[in-house]
Specification:
The chain has 154 residues and is α/β, with parallel strands linked by helices. It has one domain: 3-Layer(aba) Sandwich (Rossmann fold), CATH 3.40.50. The chain is built from 7 helices and 4 strands; from the N terminus they run E-H-H-E-H-H-E-H-H-E-H. It has helices at 14-21, 27-34, 44-58, 62-72, 82-95, 106-118, 137-140; strands at residues 7-12, 37-43, 75-78, 122-123. It has a 4-stranded parallel β-sheet. Helix 1 crosses helix 2 (27-34), helix 3 (44-58) crosses helix 4 (62-72) and helix 5 packs across helix 6. The radius of gyration is 15 Å and the shape is globular. The protein starts with 6 loop residues before the first strand and ends in a 14-residue tail after the last helix.
């Protein structure tokens, strides 16, 4: 089976964004991989989670930096509605803290819910989502990973 050169649509988790902004070793891989997707989306809950982090680290300059990044990758923000709540609740039951090896936290459940409801792969860093039933966007693009599931440059 050949590796796809692009993805149609995918969900972006906060961990992928934070990799870029914190300059982690995986930052360049995420920047390149995000460009390999025709359409990117993010839960409004994930946007709030990231906004809180950016405000705490960069004060009032944080949200404009985040918004500029999201705009540059054309990441659409999807409302978190009752259907999303229902999917997130089930995700908590199946994969939440103290319930499963994934140990999804509150913020993770926003990304999980959107990826699951739309049947889309997820861009993420770390080991948590590997224990769930959502597809790994980076793996679908052929990226290798280190022991913490940080994507390696291609």
């Amino acid at each position: 089976m050949t590796k796809p050169k692009s993805l149609g649509e995918a969900v972006v988790d906060s961990s992928a964004i934070m990799s870029v902004f914190e300059g982690r070793p995986s930052a360049q891989a995420f920047k390149l991989a995000l460009k390999c997707c025709n359409s990117l989306c993010m839960s409004a809950g994930t946007l709030l989670e990231l906004s809180i982090i950016f405000i705490s680290r960069k004060d009032i300059k944080g949200p404009p930096l985040l918004d500029s990044f999201l705009a540059s990758y054309k990441i659409a923000i999807i409302p978190f509605d009752q259907q999303a709540v229902d999917v997130a609740r089930q995700g908590c039951i199946d994969y939440g803290k103290k319930r499963n090896k994934a140990e999804l936290n509150y913020g993770d459940l926003f990304s999980y819910s959107l990826a699951k409801a739309r049947r889309l792969p997820l861009y993420f860093e770390g080991l948590d989502f590997l224990e769930t039933d959502v597809d790994d966007a980076m793996a679908m693009l052929g990226y290798g990973f280190d022991e913490k599931h940080s994507p390696l440059p291609q």
